[in-house]
Amino acid sequence: MKLSHNRAVLLMLAVTLMWSTAGVVTRHLESARSFEITFWRSAFTALSLLVILPFFQGRQVFRQIRQGTVGFWISGVCWSVMFTAFMVALTLTSVANVLVTMSIGPLLTALLARVFIGHRIPTRTWIAIVVAGAGIVYMYAAQVADASLAGTLVTLCVPLAGAVNWTVTQHSHAQGHDVDLVPAVLVGAVISTALTLPLAFPFQATPHDLALLAFLGLGQLAIPCVLSVICARVLKAPEISLLALLEVVFGILLAWIGAHEVPSASVLVGGVVVIGALVVNELIGWRNRR
């Protein structure tokens, strides 16, 4: 599937819009709660990828999974942590809180890559890390007496697992063993499904809930994950990072409009600080490389 640069940008915009629907859809569930939500979403994601992957990569993709390297399986575990923590966090705190906290992923990735594989961190990125950290601390301070603090802590597992995932795949690439991330997503979905099944009982999801969770598995996760990999073949990493930040904007707006979930002042202020630091860091980096 070959794309021009402009079409890749438009497709990536569609991907971020699909990713951002998780919060508003979750708010319209009737009976499903916590780990049951995670179980059904992961199960539908796995079923969707079992159909999609052979279509895009051929049946040899299953042989590649069986012959996966250590890095591949670590990536699968990281995906499972991200799937599970993300959906559990949405049941504990606001959509805006979850999305803003997740947005610090690129900065956590830079730190882990510096510590474990020796990537140099530019001064501008250190400044962005400090500024974004201040934004997150402000959000924490405003929620110390609030139950949503637990949701924020669970959410932090998502960017942390994402940072580990990226660091491992980069290390594997340096060793001559590239990790195919889309089959790793399938592995992560299967692991998440297996781990959350015992915790999902007793099942309470209505047919209405199952329809929404099926949409999350297929339209919010499986399809956009495959499309994002296609976009990454055309777009540069800074472009992907900047466009992916739109998930925060889209997600907050959809939850606000579609579920009447008004973000708190602390989340809005902290979010502006975090997103601003990320955008400035990426734009300066992009300008320097050009």
Q: How do the helices and strands line up, and which of them pair or pack?
A:
Blueprint: H1 5-19, H2 22-26, H3 34-57, H4 60-66, H5 70-90, H6 95-102, H7 105-117, H8 123-141, H9 148-174, H10 181-200, H11 207-232, H12 237-244, H13 246-259, H14 265-289
Helix pairs in contact: 1-11, 1-12, 1-13, 3-5, 3-10, 3-11, 5-9, 5-10, 6-9, 6-13, 6-14, 7-9, 8-14, 12-14
Task: Report what the structure shows.
α1 crosses α13, α5 (70-90) packs antiparallel against α9 (148-174) and α5 (70-90) packs across α10 (181-200). The chain is globular and about 50 Å long. 80% of the residues lie in helices and 0% in strands. It contains 14 helices and no strands. It has 290 residues and is an all-alpha fold. The model has no long low-confidence stretch (mean pLDDT 87). The protein has helices at 5-19, 22-26, 34-57, 60-66, 70-90, 95-102, 105-117, 123-141, 148-174, 181-200, 207-232, 237-244, 246-259, 265-289. The relative contact order is 0.23.
